Amino acid sequence: MKTLTHWIDGKPVEGLSGRHGAIYNPATGAQEKQVAFATVDEVDAAVASAKAAFENWGTSSLARRTAVLFKYRELLDAHRDEIAALITAEHGKVHSDALGEVARGMEIVELACGISVQLKGELSTQVSTRVDVASIRQPLGVVAGITPFNFPAMVPMWMFPLAIACGNTFVLKPSEKDPSASFRLAELASEAGLPDGVLNIVQGDKVAVDRLLEHPDIEAVSFVGSTPIAKYIQLKGVEHGKRVQALGGAKNHMLVLPDADLDFAADQAINAAYGSAGERCMAVSVVVAVGDTGDELVGKIAERARNLTIGPGDDPSSEMGPLITREHRDKVASYVTSAAEQGAVVVVDGTGHCVEGHEDGFFLGVSLLDKVPLTADAYRDEIFGPVLVVVRAESYDEAIKLINDSRWGNGTAIFTRDGGAARRFQLEVKAGMVGVNVPIPVPVGYHSFGGWKDSLFGDLHVYGNDGVAFYTQGKVITTRWPDPADAGINLGFPSHS
Prior knowledge:
Helix content: 25-40%
Radius of gyration: 25 Å
Distance between the termini: 74 Å
């Protein structure tokens, strides 16, 4: 069985712990690989490699850094099908979805290629007599990223290209469930000319995560994952003096007003709820139907849901693939059962779905739950699977209160033809990313991604301007070239004159 190893100092490094994690093909249920789990010493070796590489990389020219990143972008483009196939084999999402993930990750590489503009400083001349003040941004040093299973290529690319473009060196701990795509990203970075030690990968579990959070030579940690772990990452990272950005879970609401195009809204609800089997932090998991739109909208969504083609991600006819593990599949299915017991109407029940020839795969059909009580587990919890919840509201005011009362605030959307209602919604809703007739409002690379409330722990979002600010620290330089007339003693507070 193939064993996936660490990537340290520009080369694969065999694991020494003797501990491994299973890597499954979710479409077949078979274990096809294993991944070595790092020891504390192996994490330390990766950090030491990054620290040594920072001595040169941190002071290298912007031209040198961007030359490597331009070459890296070319290699990613040439290998995008290969990377997507690795994602499909270990995560399960359909190939077209995996290709989209690679493309969105490449947006951040493209942003990093233009880092010279983002790092351009400021200069104020003659702020006082013969005194100038400049502001510059400099890299932090060694930084780390801890990334989730649902986007094994895109989320790492949200982090390390921008971090290394800013002059930092990076240690990545990808998900142990589907690590091959991240490993391939590191190989291609080396092929592009990235110096050894600038990007390192340690595979593993909590042992590796805790060591990264405790290590005195790591200056900052980026994380994407569930809310409980995001809280843990922030608390432990800050305890050890680190800058932290930790993106947590979500329960994204899609508000549909009576004037909306219901066919369009139903199409978008299907796309946003069931794409990637619902394993997206920006998936729509709740539709809020306002007024008398509910019955018609639910009927349209149900009709479309029943016609989705579910199968292996490498089958071009499949529209949705399996879930990541058997355990997660079973947990997601349990929410459909409990919803019925807790007062919801099960309109579409996908829990008994079976894919012929793949009976051992981690497949689950799509489910649609209507009139879900706000006290039901299906509404209160982040399900992270192909289960769409519909709740009813009599008015816009009731709907916005319902959304704002959620403990999460990652993304949200409104579907309407009314510009005034849309403008009011985007100003009043308590969420970090808002879509107007756009169900998954993931920002482009030059804007930042991040939520509010229990969807974000830390002050700065990822990529965009926030990403650059997170991976750099400011310095202000005040300069004077004295004239003989400036001589003399003056113990007063300096004044600008």
